[in-house]
Amino acid sequence: MLNKIYIIGHKSPDLDSVAAAISYANFKNRRSPLPRDCGEAEMQSGGEEYLPASAGAMNKETVFALEKFGFEAPEILKNADGKKVILVDHNEFAQAADGVENAEIIEVLDHHKVDFKYSEPIVFDVRPWGASCSIIAEKYFKNNLELNKNLAGLMLAAILVDTVITKSPTCTENDKIIIEKLAGIADIKHWQEFGMEIFKIRSSASELSDAEIIKSDFKDFNFKQGKFGIGQVETVDLNNFADRKNGLMDELNKLKNSENYHSVILFITDIIKEGSEFLVATNDQEKVEQALGVKLDNNKVYIKGVISRKKQVAPKFAGVFDE
Ligand SMILES: [Mn+2]
Questions:
Q1: What are the residues whose beta carbons fall under 8 Å from the beta carbon of 287, sequence distance 6 or more?
Q2: Model pLDDT, residue 43
Q3: What's the order of all strands across the beta sheet hosting 123-126?
Q4: pTM for the complete prediction?
Q5: Cα–ligand 1 centroid distance for 131 (angstroms)
Q6: Rounded average pLDDT over 284-291
Q7: How far, in Å, is the centroid of ligand 1 from the Cα of 232?
Q8: Could you give the domains of the chain?
């Protein structure tokens, strides 16, 4: 009997969490071959089969990248209850698939702040790098495991999104080296242009509803003073969103009230200008202004130089609301 182990990213899956599940499952299966590739003894003792999974539907650039590089969308695991899982690209239960409290967690591989508690010692690999796929790529290189062109392309796409084509303050020297290496293997010479191509798909919001825009890259944070939801959307031109802000504000308020959030924030990042427009639905405007360090004008404000939720936005809110 094969032991099924699901490798799964966070809710509202982004490209990095999906590509990490696929590439890490490939890595783990090749590092610990299935029993059919082994001798009699292993046959009887069973073996592990690592399966990529996702905690929700794919977003647009994920669909694009999977298609471009010839991968199927991973199975959506609606409930992790009773399953063996490896968490990739997240470690906070607030962001994990439903039922994770009752899952057997085998391992965590991530690049976000640590908010994790578990009753067993497990492999826990969290590095302050720009993407989960960078950590996984490094494992391939270190183990001299061959990476094929398509998997390298998929991982490259994920790293380019997570690091905003290396512009994000979360992007490290390691990520830059890995981007160059993966681009070489994937035979994508102009990776900056490839990155822009993905961001154009990611930010082509015209056919999405306001709720879909907010939820396309959205994370919950359980702070001491309440539940926060922070969504991010990138664009190559903020003007694309000019006539949608009122609709988005209404939707943020609706979401805040219906799901009992303290605050729901959407920030629209202009990756060319390298700044973000914040739209805020909150029970405490004054404290949000304190967190952001600026005054809101009609629940909105543009902040130059802020493009990373992980490094620049979530910590500001945690500093005020998780006290
Ligand atoms: Mn990531």
A1: 320, 321
A2: 46
A3: 75-76, 47-54, 2-8, 84-88, 104-110, 123-126
A4: 0.85
A5: 4
A6: 97
A7: 13
A8: 2-198 (3.90.1640.10), 210-321 (3.10.310.20)
